[in-house]
Amino acid sequence: MKLTTQSIRRPAGTIMLMIVIMVVGMAGFTILPVNMLPDVTYPVVKVFVHWPGASPEQVENEVAAVIERKMATVDNLDYMESTCQEGVYTLTINFDFNVNRDAAYQDVLAKLGLVKKELPGDILEPFVFKADPSQLPVVELLVSSDNMSLTRLRTWVENEFQEEFASVKGSAGTALSGGMLREIRVHIDPIAMQGYRLTLQDLHNRLEKENIDMTAGRLLTGPRDYLIRISGEYQSLEEIENLVIVKPDGISPILLKDIARVEDHHELQRIRTRYNGREGVRISIFKQDEANAVSVSDLIARRMETLRDELPATTRVDMIYDQAEYVRMATHGVRNAMLLAALIVTLVTAFFLSGWRRVVSLFLSLPVTVLGTFFLMQLLGFSVNIFTLGGLVVAMTVVLDNSVVMLENITRIQETERDTPDPVTRGALQISGAILTATITFLSLFLPFLLVPGMVSLLFRELVITVAIIIFLSMMVSLTVTPMLMSLFYPEGKPYTGKHTFIARISDWFIRGVISIYRPVLNWSLKWRWPVVIAFFLLLIPGYRFLKETGSEFLPRADDGLITLNVTMPVGTSMEETDRVLLQIENLIKNPENLPFTRLPRGGIHGYASLAGGKIQGLETIDNSYRGEINIQLVPPDERPMTTDEYVEMLRPLIMKNVRIPGAVIKVMHTKMKGVRQTGQFDIELEVTAPRNEPMENIYEQAGIIHGRLKETDFLSGLDISIQLNKPEYQIEIDRQKAADLGISLEETGTILRTLFGGSVPTRYKEGPYYYPLRMIIDEREVTSVSFINNISLKTTDGRTIPLGAVARVEKKAGPLQIDRKNQDRLIKVTANVTGTTIGNATAIIREKLDNLTLPPGYRLNYGGQSQMLSENMQQMIMILLFSLFLGYAVMVIYFESFLKPLIILIRIPLSLAGISYALYITGTPVSVTALIGVVMLTGIEINNGVLLLTFIDELRQQRLEIAAAIKEAAIARLRPILITDINSIFGLLPLALTMGNGTEMLKPMAIVVIGGIIFGMLLVFLFIPAVYMILYSRRPLPAD
User: Fold this and answer.
1) What does residue 800 show for φ and ψ, rounded to 5 degrees?
2) Lowest CB count within 10 Å: 164, 607, 660, 670, which one?
């Protein structure tokens, strides 16, 4: 190979190139960003529409149906989901993963613009934004105070404190929740207004028009140009109280204070937040897409230190969540595994190589390969995350394989062909073709995984490319640097001297011992080749059973110490009552005596944050008075004797036993991985969909049947139906004919009712540089019973006033709190989390239980949540794996110029599944996407070994050696390099396979798969391949000269 001969002939240029690669690699490594996961952009767009006062049915019929009908025509649409609530419509549009998010955003804007004229006239301007499930808070704080009211605290945080973090480099802004938003309230006295014959519209217009700040024009006087401005904003609450509403002839003017009470108040508190029992205001700080999570967190921490001395007295700031803490722990854990793997590989290889020149030749190539990888990672815009580091860990175990094979072949030529003029060049050229073929085959197996659409490609893209880079660089180093260094240490004509050190003697003794055992076993396997081959295939039978019992999951759960408690109260429960239940749970978990480990500080809990009245999803704060959640952060894994999942299993019965609330549903679960787009919030989501004209009660009934069938299933926890239909409400049915005869408009009536009970904001009150809503609303003390609604005054066209009860009927009914939709159909979900088994096994059992379920015409049952992600991605992964094997086969056919020989190598891949299944079963590790990546890695290693063995057998056959003798000599000659490769892989991956917690959980299945497959694969390469080769070629003549 010309590249190899040139590197040997020009050592100075090769050495200089090594130095350049190492220098730029170190420079690239120092500037690589550090994140938890790869930088992933999800093509998701959200649409928000606010329609104050509208019922969920109105929102569905007049907003959702109109918008979704048009959005269904958007190109590259995957699916869309929406929620219709009182006065709020939320639409989430999910596009195919390969779609540009900016282009998708523009398409949604264009479609929305086409339907705006069809939407109700009194909706607020629709809000469209690019949603990113990976864009979660990098830091969350809770600000509390002992002497500030929640209104004053929220005002201070909103106007002053949060601005301190908006200017942090890399910050993408903040979001607030909790506390009380300040507003100026005008509490209307409806009886007084009726007495003065004033309408709400009169009051609304007066408040709005008397609060102005406007420019009237310019005045030019000589050389001066003056701006004329009318400054008429309210200066104080007293001024608002004394505002003249109307001045009747002959009597005193009617002031606002005659018909209303003005108060510096706050909005109705819908969300209440606490941390470790202290109520306050939560600040969620986000980072920019390209920003480094660790750097942003460090800058926020520094800013916090500078602000502590400036905080108001008795004000306290607590860190609820710091993404950088787990990022540091995870990357540190994987980095330690990588360094330990490098050390193990170094020691193992040094032990077998015997001879300091060979050791130096090998390990001078290691920094070139690794640092060159860091340089290319920086050029490609990658970050240091658990996936790229995991790729380095796996690749570290095989990074020296090509160089080992090169050194072994050169050494063999030096020992057996001492008369050869240039044994280094001859040995290098002899093996270079096999190394090149094995590497190309390896890459052909790995790179097709970039073709997997969806989540797998996005998450594992950087890992796959990192492994491909380091394998390619290791090949280049083995073909250039390694032979060049060997030629320097062993100049042309200099005899080989080595194997005289103490370690060399031990290494030779070990290899001779292995050969003495292996030789008779090999002879026996060649003699009894058919029984050997059949025996290996029979091992697949228990292996398949074990593989089935291990179950499957999409991604392994990280031991991040994050636990979520979701509380769902009966519909209609107030936020205060929901918060009372959360407080009951908090009082339980804050007492270490109640927790599983009383000896741990605070029972193993680092802190807990609660939110009553809804939930936070990224930038959104969704308020539902009957919902609440508590987020628990455990102490680091090395400070507790159990994993997060085990802690959940012990905490769940404790909560269920001590917190008994009629009608309440409490779910205790391991928090879903942050930053990964989920198709649902739960492990199991059974979606019952029906046409839009189908009553919600009928859909709920079918969901109830499914719920009933699964109710007694042991492995399902928190089994629930996604919505409830018993929301209490007063429905006002207006007699259209009577109202029309009296000239009463339904729209005006609705506006009056909305203003009285929900309030309307005619203007804003300015204090300093800040503005606060000025809200008109009925004085809650005036509403004593439902009869008040019947007595609300309406004005007819002739100026008379009549009670609402004269034209309407008020009835107490139950209706849906929200209406969920998917792809324009109505949707109700049956949800649950899985405990005690895997999601794959749970889904299979659920399918059996629901196999004979008969749904009404037009109804459909779909499997969503984590089970959907698992099913879709596993199928894609298996198809890509088969395609990868086909590409690998094609490369080997080209190299061997044979269709049969590559099959000898590939036929052992299914047999390796026996070793994989045993390893997964023994360790209790489910099959996951990460495990399948390990299968690809294992396949590359096994094919590499097979190519090396068959290449040498063919070479000996070309030398007219009889087939049995060729197989034996080749197997013995390739024993040392293959043994080094396999031992390096096994022991190099042990730190990743055995480490508990510290961020390695997601990569652990990959290591277990490779280790189990290699242990079984060693038997295959040394016994199975020779036996199969003997069967297929024993009767074929020797190749012609």
Assistant:
1) -80, 160
2) 660
Angle between helix 540-550 and 529-538 (nearest 10):
20
Residue of 734, 973, 716, 707 whose CA lies nearest to 867: 716
**Predicted confidence band at 954 (pLDDT cuts at 50, 70, 90)?**
confident
Give the single-character DSSP code of 553.
-
> In sequence order, which residues have a C-beta less than 8 Å from that of residue 115 and are 6 or more positions away?
66, 67, 69, 70
pLDDT in tens, 891-929: 888 888 888 888 888 887 777 888 888 888 888 888 888
Please spell the DSSP secondary structure of 647-677, one letter per residue.
Answer: HHHHHHHHHHHH---TT-EEEEEEPPPTTS-
In a domain, 613, yes or no: yes
Structure tokens at 274: 């606490």
**pLDDT value at 417 more than 80:** no
Q: What is the pLDDT of residues 659-670, one digit of tens each?
A: 878 878 888 888
Tokens of 968: 């034996």
pLDDT higher than threshold 80 for residue 76:
yes
What's 733-758 look like in SS3? EECHHHHHHCCCCHHHHHHHHHHHHC
Q: Strand, helix or coil at 587? A: helix
Query: How does pLDDT run across 418-477, given as a tens digit for each residue?
Result: 677 788 888 888 888 888 887 888 888 777 877 766 677 777 788 888 888 888 898 898
Q: Max Cα separation, the chain? A: 130
Domain hosting residue 641, numbered range: 561-672
With respect to residue 622, please indicate whether it lies within any of the assigned structural domains.
yes
pTM: 0.78
SS (H, E, C) 175-192: EEEECCCEEEEEEECHHH
Terminal C-alpha separation, the chain: 23
Closest CA to 1000 of 637, 670, 678: 637
